Amino acid sequence: MGCRLLIVCHEKTFLVDSLVKGLESTGIEPLLCGPDVRDIDVLKDLSDIILVFVDDFTSEEMKVLVYVKDVCVDDGKPLYLVGYRDMLDHAGELIPPEYVDKEFARPIDAKKLISALTFEADQLSFRALQKSIMIVDDDLTYLKIIRKQLSTKYHVVAVKSGMQAIKHLATHTPDLILMDYDMPITTGSKVMEMIRSEPDTENIPIIFLTGKADRETVMDVMGLNPQGYLLKDMSQEEILEAIDKFFESEKLRVKHRKYNG
Fold first, then answer.
1. At residue 7, what are phi and psi to the nearest 5 degrees?
2. Fewer CB in a 10 Å sphere around the end CB: N or C, the chain?
3. How far apart are CA 130 and CA 203, in angstroms?
4. In Å, how far are 74, 129, 187 from 201, measured between CA atoms?
5. Which domains can be identified in the chain, with CATH numbers?
C-alpha cells in the first residue's frame, strides 16, 4: 500500500498506541508528532493522510488545526479528526466541516479507525493512477463547486490565489492547471507568465476559466496561447467532457510524437 499517516496527538494514549500497533500489518506507516507547527512542517511532506487527536488540546494548540487544514488543502491530503464530541465541535469552529474528510467521535475502538484508514489508503492508491488537476481561483464558492465536480474522475487540488499555485508547483507537477483568468492582485495571465518562465513548470498545460464570453475577452485569453479556456457557467457534464477531450487529445499527441520519432 505504501501509505504514510501523520498522527498529531497531545500524548501517546492507549488508543493511539493500539492504532499504531494495529497499522503494522496494513502497509500504512505511522508518523507521530505533537500539536506543534514546527514539528508538523517537518513531517507534512512525508505523509499522505493526517489524523489529529484533538482531545486535551489547549486553546493555543487547537489553533494548529488551521495550519493542518491549510496543509491538507494545499497538498490534497485527507484530514481525519478524532475526539470527544465537545472537542470536535470546538474544532469545527476553527475549520469548516467541508475541509474534514471524516470525524470520529469517541469512544471509538482502534479497529474502526484502522478500517477507515485502510480504505482511505486504498483510495489514495487509486487516485495515484488518476490524472491530476490543480484549480486556481479566488472565488471560494466556485472553487468548491468545480473541485467537487472534477473529483468524481480526477485527483484535484484547489488553491485560492496565484501565489499559492506557484508555491504548490515547487513540489508538485499536475497534469493540468485550470486557472481563473480574472483573479485580482496576481492575475491569471501573470501567473501563467511565471509558470512558463520556469523550466520545471513551463510545459504544464494551462486552461483558463473565465466568466466572460464576449469576443474581446476570448481574444485576450487565447492571445496568451493557453491550451484552451472554459466558461464558468458551463454545466458539470460540459466541463468534464471538455477535460476528458483535452486529456484524450494529449494522449494522441504524445502517441503521435513517439511514433514519428
1. -100, 115
2. C
3. 19
4. 17, 21, 18
5. 3-127 (3.40.50.2300), 132-259 (3.40.50.2300)
Structure letter (DSSP) for residue 173: -
DSSP result, 179-229: EETT-SSS-HHHHHHHHHTSTTTTTS-EEEEES--SHHHHHHHHTT--SEE
**Amino acid identity, position 29:** E
Chain segment 107-156, per-residue pLDDT in tens: 988 999 999 999 888 877 776 667 899 999 999 889 888 888 888 888 88
The 3-state DSSP class for residue 71 equals: helix
Does the pLDDT of residue 9 top 90, yes or no?
A: yes
Query: The pTM is what?
Result: 0.59
- Of the candidates 108, 103, 149, 154, the residue with the CA atom closest to the CA atom of residue 131: 154
- Where do the H-state alpha helices sit in 76-139? 85-94, 110-127
Q: Would you give the end-to-end CA distance of the chain in angstroms?
A: 36
Number of neighbours of residue 181 by Cβ within 10 angstroms: 22
Tally: H helices and E strands in the chain: 11, 10
Question: Max alpha carbon distance in the chain (Å)?
Answer: 64
Give CA–CA dist 245/228, Å, rounded.
Answer: 11
Q: For residue 83, what are the CA distances in angstroms to 132, 144, 146, 163, 193?
A: 32, 26, 31, 34, 45
Strand partners of residue 209: 180, 230
Q: What is the pLDDT of residues 204-214, one digit of tens each?
A: 999 999 888 78
Give the C-alpha separation, 136 to 256, whole Å: 30
pLDDT digits (tens, 9 = 90+) for 151-180: 888 888 889 899 999 988 988 899 999 999
